[in-house]
Design a protein that fits this description.
- A six-stranded mixed sheet has the order 1-3-2-4-6-5, sandwiched between helices.
- The chain is α/β, with parallel strands linked by helices.
- It contains eleven helices and six strands.
- A hairpin with a 2-residue loop joins strand 5 and strand 6.
- Helix 2 runs parallel beside helix 7.
Length: 255
């Protein structure tokens, strides 16, 4: 049925009804809502969710390192095992593995701390200024890495910003170090710096430990100042010279 109201009158009436609180418009003809079809949407069946993946078992990097190290029957195999080891975060930030330098099978094996920037770039331990000083120190007692000295580090990858290695990093890589010593078969170990003393002897305090013979890995061990430390503290070279003479005497006595 058409309304006789004009547009403006109808709008005014509508606005008046809204002001009164009307919220629903009802048509002229009644509607039996009980007779309307049920249009309520039925809830969908929940889709089957994929089973959550099983949580990985706790990984023991020390045990994995030990197994990999013991499986190496040569220095080349040990290097490959270390290069394949993925559980040390240091590897992700380093350029390359720093394995060893010098002469395998030499009487003297030197264990440094961790690679620095120069070592990380060249892939060899004890290069740069510290390496040059080490070579001069060895030459003073008739030793040479090209003939009768073998050199490695506690860690094969450079820590970020040359920070000290963490105890868990040392513990993780120690099985590789122990196997390295066993395969190199030196007569004497020289541990240079606090980190090396901690890894090999389980002790710290290089100023107190230096120059005193100890025993580890079934070998005689002598702690010495790290060449990098001597570059910063040249007044300590006198003590370093005394330690070198002690090493020389030991080697002569064992000949």
């Amino acid at each position: 049925m058409e309304s006789g109201l004009d547009y403006y009158s109808a709008r005014a009436l509508l606005e008046w009804q809204i002001e009164l609180g009307a919220t629903e418009a009802i048509g002229d003809a009644p509607v039996d809502r009980y007779a309307l079809p049920d249009t309520t949407a039925k809830p969908k069946k929940a889709e089957a969710r994929p089973a959550a993946p099983a949580k990985p078992r706790d990984v023991n990097p020390v045990a994995i390192a030990g197994s990999a190290a013991q499986g190496a029957g040569s220095l080349d195999q040990l290097r490959a095992a270390m290069d394949a080891f993925e559980h040390c975060e240091l590897k992700r930030g380093a350029r390359q593995l720093v394995f060893a330098a010098g002469t395998p099978g030499a009487r003297v094996m030197i264990i440094g701390e961790a690679p620095g920037r120069d070592e990380d770039r060249e892939g060899k331990p004890f290069v740069g200024r510290a390496g040059q000083l080490l070579d001069r120190m060895l030459a003073a007692i008739e030793l040479d890495r090209r003939e009768n000295v073998y050199i490695t580090n506690v860690l094969p990858w450079r820590p970020p910003q040359n920070r000290d290695p963490k105890p868990e990093e040392i513990g993780m890589m120690k099985p590789f170090l122990e196997r390295h010593v066993a395969l190199a078969r030196p007569e004497v170990l020289v541990v240079m710096g606090n980190i090396s003393c901690q890894a090999v002897l389980g002790k710290r305090g290089i100023t107190r430990l230096r120059g005193k013979w100890d025993q580890a890995m079934d070998l005689p061990v002598i702690p010495m100042f790290h060449p990098a430390y001597l570059l910063r503290q040249p007044q300590m070279k006198r003590q370093a010279w005394a330690d070198l003479l002690e090493l020389k005497a030991r080697l002569r006595g064992a000949t």
